[in-house]
Amino acid sequence: MGHIVILGGGESGVGAALLAQSKGFSVFLSDQGKLKEHYQDQLRRQAIPFESEKHTVSEILKADEIIISPGIPEKSELVQTIKKQGIPLVSEIEFAARYTKAKLIAITGSNGKTTTTLLTYHLLKEAGFNVGLAGNIGQSFAKQVMDNSFDYFVLEISSFQLDRCFDFKPDVAVLINITPDHLDRYDYKFENYIHSKFRIFQNANTQTACIYWGDDEVIQQYQDLIPQAAQLKTIHFGQQAGAANITDDAIQFAFGQIERATAPIQGPHNAINMAAAVLAATEAGVSWSDIQANLGSFQNAPHRLEPCGNWHGIQFINDSKATNVDAVFYALNSFQKNLILIIGGVDKGNEYDVLNDLVKSKVKGMICLGTDNAKLMAHFGDRVPQILSTDSLETAVSTSMQWGESGDIVLLSPACASFDLFKNYEDRGDQFKATVNRLTHGS
Q: Cα–Cα distance between 361 and 85 in angstroms, integer?
């Protein structure tokens, strides 16, 4: 059958190893980091050879094909060596898709892809569809392909995963938006990142529904990258011809409309996400009556505009997943009231000008939370009535309680990565929620 090497022993890598072995390949897994014990146990149980905390290049180069973790940089010496040898490098998504007959709904975008993926999955599952959730979220796609007989998969796909997809052809492909992100991975060329996102459409044909936000200027510019034969389903604000039209009051489809005031997720960005999810679900065969019945019970992912406490009328919102400026732009757009914004972390080359007007009109106080807040303080110091720099989450939350009054919203929406003070954005969000709970409890 051939020999497959897996680089990276996280959820997707171990799942790919298990699937590859079940299909008759000989398998070797290599991780430069420390493999978690439960993953080591899974590999041992199946007698799959692996190495932890090192890459033995001579072993890796024995591969006929290599399944690579999306976290391993393209520029790494190991990847360059593999490329010189001409060994194919693919993602877990590309590999696993070969072994399923399930209908695939694949969703990507710079912001909102998790919300859209979870909502699409919710609409299929609640309608009684036999559906799995995978990709950049949940359990390994490969492992689910091996273990389960799902008829449908809803997949959240990152640009890093798409970079190593070649024959992957979803039945429904969704591109929500494209804004600058991860440019350090793409030679600081926005165009490279754009081409990466458009790979979700690269194999589309007459059977493929391609859903995208038609008002996105970047998508408009590069629309020619979508194969002409595909079925194009666009989302627009206003009355321009499209599969979904968003007005101030409603999201309108050919088959009905959703009132925005009573929708389970709020804000203009979430109107786009809802439109995309509803279109994807209907393409998969979910009825409008089922969508109407089940939309209201949707709960968004943790760390994405997640309410996490109320103290004397001050509401606390955890938006720790907002790791770039555009995500914060969407968050600020979701609220009308006075905001106390907690922002900061590891800056990925952010440009904050896009936030200026929203900050000036909505933010009554800004707390910069990070080990180096100089750039934020310099940019926003004259644009907000009060501003504080701290590297203490406790100080950030207690200060927001002092500044706030009934009707205010304290919003953690950092615009930055979390690695200066936290393990990841989940850890940052969890610690924020715990600190809010502790400081407001019983007060």
A: 56
| DSSP run (H or E) holding 144 | helix 141-147
pTM: 0.81
260-271 pLDDT, tens digit per residue, is 989 998 888 899
Q: CA 85, CA 27: separation in Å to the nearest integer?
A: 19
Residue with tokens 């309680």: 401
CATH topology of domain 94-297: UDP-N-acetylmuramoyl-L-alanine:D-glutamate ligase (3.40.1190)
Q: 3-class SS at 264?
A: coil
- Residue 184 is predicted with a pLDDT of 66
- Map tokens 């589309």 to a residue: 204
CB 412 within 8 A of CB 320: yes
Give, rounded to a whole angstrom, the gap between the first and last alpha carbons of the chain: 65
Q: Does the structural domain 3-90 have CATH classification 3.40.50.720?
A: yes
Give the per-residue pLDDT at 348.
78
Q: Which helix (H) or strand (E) holds 95?
A: helix 92-97
Rounded Cα distance between 306 and 412, Å, is 10
* Residue ranges of the chain whose pLDDT lies below 50: 443
Q: Residues spanned by CATH 3.40.1190.10 within the chain?
A: 94-297
Token pair for 199: 């790979």
Q: Which residues are annotated as a binding site?
A: 109-115
Q: Look up the CATH architecture of domain 306-440.
A: Alpha-Beta Complex (3.90)
| Annotated binding-site members for ATP | 109-115
